[in-house]
Write a structure and sequence with these properties.
four-stranded antiparallel sheet, 11 strands, alpha+beta, 3 domains, Helix Hairpins
Length: 454
């Protein structure tokens, strides 16, 4: 049984049970009250009839008038005046007057009593007088019980049926409102596979719990996509990039062993092999680091980092790597509150990410000025790196974050195409974003957004 159906049945059974218990209680207590009330009314009539008939000095006409004026005649009302001598045969009197023998016994012993036979109710009192003891009994049908309670029972039954139907409809609507978002999330998750890992669940603000669930699942999908892409790219790129240096190493060795060579030729061959081995080592290190940054932040220590300090440390590093560069750092947009520059991150990784962007700007800037600006909003730190270099062709822009991809106009520049993919992975770990805009021959602008401390 599906969970929504099970919940509907449980709620419906509980609700109907409570309504049924309430209806039964109402009917039961009213039924008991109708019995007690009728017995009291019958006993009152019996006492008036006894006083009217047996008590001397009583104005019988006044009692009769009072009874007729203030006491309505009950349905099938009858009066019995039954002599009760000490040796009376109660069974014979019961048969003769058609009253319960047990009622006569109770009246004789207790002075008053009540009884019920079918729909007829009896109440009587013992009247002690000169002629002897008499049982004065009044009987009547319980019209309230036979009609009003019957009507109430039918009404309660009808109300229970209607309440059950209305409650079932309400619980069905309620369960759909509750489970439809979960069903939608489940259906959307089923559509996401290894072929379309970029898809995400549509967020909604209608339900905070569902919103939190969707946000959590989207975060999980982000990490899964990064891990999956990293693994896929590592395998495909490793097989592709390792091929060239390995082929060169094998070729150099085969050529060197093909015949006897001079010492200078062997040294030249070894230098070529060393160069290819060095390239293979760099590619291996880059691939491993790229893979390591793609598997989430659980292996990385995060601390409070000021991004203006990160940018300045990158500036110092570029001074050593590229003497004579034209890098300018603009701090004129720094906020007055230094807290707006602080992020939760790893200093070394952030230096590497910003360093890759600035290094590319200097390398592809063709000796032209490069400007790095730092600014901050209420919730983000913004780093802008702008150069006036060769730019990136429009057709190549969608692929610049693919590992080992290099733009078509970078053939004369050294590199492996690892920097930007690595930077993107690092920024993903820090919940940041990177945007690149460029025009060939005009330059490239890279914007980095990082969330500040909450």
């Amino acid at each position: 049984m599906r969970t929504p159906t099970r919940i509907i049945l449980v709620l419906l059974l509980c609700f109907v049970g409570l309504i049924g218990l309430a209806g039964f209680s109402i009917y039961y207590f009213l039924d008991k009250y109708s019995y007690n009330d009728l017995y009291k009314r019958l006993e009152t009539r019996a006492r008036i009839s006894a006083a009217q008939r047996f008590e001397e000095g009583t104005d019988a006409e006044v009692l009769r008038m009072t009874q007729e004026t203030f006491l309505e005649k009950l349905p099938e009302q009858r009066e019995y005046f039954i002599p009760l001598p000490p040796d009376a045969d109660l069974q014979a009197l019961s048969r003769a007057h058609e009253v319960p023998a047990e009622l006569l016994r109770v009246i004789r012993n207790d002075g008053r009593g009540t009884a019920k036979r079918g729909l007829t109710f009896y109440a009587g009192v013992l009247q002690r007088s000169g002629p002897g003891d008499h049982a004065v009994i009044v009987s009547a049908h319980n019209y309230y019980a036979s009609h009003h309670l019957h009507y109430l029972r039918n009404l309660l039954t009808l109300l229970m049926v209607l309440t059950t139907l209305i409650s079932a409809a309400f619980f069905l609507y309620f369960s759909r409102r509750v489970f439809d978002p979960i069903t939608r999330v489940t259906d959307e998750l089923r559509r996401i596979s290894t072929e379309n890992m970029h898809l995400r669940l549509a967020e909604t603000r209608a339900d905070p719990e569902i919103t939190a669930l969707i946000t959590t699942l989207n975060g999980l999908l982000d990490r899964m996509e990064t891990a999956f892409e990293t693994q896929k790219n590592f395998i495909s790129n490793a097989s592709h990039e390792f091929g060239t240096p390995l082929t060169s190493l094998i070729g150099e060795a085969e050529v060197a062993l093909a015949k006897e060579r001079t010492s200078a030729e062997y040294q030249e061959t070894l230098r070529g092999m060393l160069q290819q081995a060095d390239r293979l080592d760099k590619i291996t290190r880059s691939l491993l680091f790229l893979a390591r940054t793609g598997y989430g932040e659980h292996r990385i220590t995060f601390n409070i980092v000021r991004m203006d300090e990160v940018v300045w440390s990158v500036k110092v590093l570029m001074d050593d790597l590229h003497p004579g560069h034209k890098l300018h750092v603009d701090f004129s947009l720094l906020p007055e509150n230094p807290r707006k520059l602080k992020v939760n991150g790893n200093m070394d990784l952030l230096q590497l990410a910003v360093g890759n962007i600035v290094n590319n700007a200097i390398k592809y800037g063709a000796g032209k000025p490069v400007q790095v600006s730092v600014a901050a909003g209420n919730q983000e730190v913004i780093i802008l790196v702008k150069d006036e270099g060769i730019g990136i062709p429009e057709a190549d822009l969608p692929f610049i974050f693919d590992p080992f991809f290099r733009a078509s106009n970078t053939a004369y520049f050294e590199g492996f195409g690892i920097g930007l993919p690595l930077t993107r992975n690092i920024l993903k770990l820090h919940k940041g974003r990177i945007q690149v805009s460029s025009q060939p021959g005009t330059g490239t602008t890279v914007q980095v957004n990082l969330p500040t401390l909450e």
